[in-house]
């Protein structure tokens, strides 16, 4: 990518629209979901009013982040159409949509490609043993199903964001195996633009009773990930989940180069407010880092869009 200068850290000025918080999965670390039918869906009219307020506010990315309606539910089609319509609306108003709506059929993914500049899905961890613990009631977290999503995105040539959730009961070897699988798929399809390394950070809604992932361990994981992943995949860390400024800088020294979407609220980790741009600059600048906004589609993919 063109931003190859060593002292540049990127972020995406973003706003998150949530079509629905309802999700038929019940991951025990989740701080996002409600039960099916328990929260109203966002309407296109409400979204339009939000987006109108965002115009001229330097927001570029609209992250469409949704809980999942079961693939066999009679409401699945309406759910998908709402997501499609929100993306089309954002595009028509000059924003760049990036959708992460969980597991999609190939046909759904193919349709969403037309109204998104990139898409995303966390691989989280490939080890099947989590199906007996945090993912016991989360059919969408079957490792082979998630790997297939990354493969379909590759076949469809969709610029893609994925990542690992760290500290949900996996081992260190599990990290390296998950990273190696991402690397293999990228070498086949060249479509992964960034890999998020997200430390488990307990929130007020979750039932999973575990310590937060030790942020002091993160630089070590980043350094090894940098060795495993191809050089054209950027490593992203969420700065609101790495509270200590010195460790945030250590993460950059270890090879992280992106801070993800920065907006008013982290919908996945609502207990951890985003550090806003000015605050981040104050941390990064004295250490010699330049914070630069980026688009939700990385430069190497823009010629294909
Ligand atoms: S983590 Fe995602 S898939 Fe799991 S329950 Fe929450 S919203 Fe659903």
UniProtKB/TrEMBL annotation:
Species whose genome carries this gene: Anabaena sphaerica FACHB-251
Occurrences of domain Radical SAM core (ranges): 9-240
Assembly and binders: The FO synthase complex consists of two subunits, CofG and CofH.
Protein name: 7,8-didemethyl-8-hydroxy-5-deazariboflavin synthase
InterPro entries reported in the protein's UniProt record: Aldolase_TIM, CofG_family, Elp3/MiaA/NifB-like_rSAM, F420, rSAM, rSAM_sf
Residues annotated for [4Fe-4S] cluster binding in this entry: 23, 27, 30
Pathway: Cofactor biosynthesis; coenzyme F0 biosynthesis
One of the record's GO molecular function terms: 4 iron, 4 sulfur cluster binding
Note on how the cofactor is bound: Binds 1 [4Fe-4S] cluster. The cluster is coordinated with 3 cysteines and an exchangeable S-adenosyl-L-methionine.
Essential cofactor(s): [4Fe-4S] cluster
Function, in words: Catalyzes the radical-mediated synthesis of 7,8-didemethyl-8-hydroxy-5-deazariboflavin (FO) from 5-amino-5-(4-hydroxybenzyl)-6-(D-ribitylimino)-5,6-dihydrouracil.
């Amino acid at each position: 990518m063109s931003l190859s200068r060593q002292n540049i850290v990127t972020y995406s000025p973003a706003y998150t629209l949530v079509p629905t918080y309802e999700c038929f999965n019940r991951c025990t670390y989740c701080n996002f979901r409600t039960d099916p039918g328990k929260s109203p869906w966002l309407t296109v009219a409400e979204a339009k009013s939000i987006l109108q307020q965002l115009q001229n506010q330097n927001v570029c990315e609209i992250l469409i982040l949704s809980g999942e309606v079961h693939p066999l539910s009679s409401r699945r089609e309406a759910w998908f159409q709402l997501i499609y319509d929100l993306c089309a609306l954002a595009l028509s108003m000059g924003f760049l949509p990036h959708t992460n709506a969980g597991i999609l059929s190939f046909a759904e993914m193919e349709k969403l490609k037309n109204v998104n500049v990139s898409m995303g899905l966390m691989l989280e961890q490939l080890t099947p043993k989590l199906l007996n613990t945090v993912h016991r009631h989360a059919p969408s977290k079957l490792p082979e199903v998630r790997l297939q999503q990354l493969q379909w995105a590759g076949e469809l040539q969709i610029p893609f964001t994925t990542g690992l959730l760290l500290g949900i009961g996996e081992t260190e070897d599990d990290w390296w195996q998950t990273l190696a699988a991402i690397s293999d798929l990228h070498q086949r399809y060249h479509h992964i633009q960034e890999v998020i390394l997200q430390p488990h950070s307990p929130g007020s809604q979750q039932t999973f009773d575990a310590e937060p992932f030790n942020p002091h361990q993160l630089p070590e994981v980043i350094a090894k990930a940098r060795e495993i992943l191809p050089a054209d995949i950027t490593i992203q860390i969420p700065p609101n989940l790495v509270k200590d400024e010195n460790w945030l800088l250590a993460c950059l020294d270890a090879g992280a180069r992106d801070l993800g979407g920065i907006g008013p609220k982290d919908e996945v980790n609502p207990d951890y407010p985003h550090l806003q741009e000015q605050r981040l600059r104050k941390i990064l600048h004295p250490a010699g880092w330049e914070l630069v906004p980026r688009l939700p589609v990385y430069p190497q993919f823009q010629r294909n869009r």
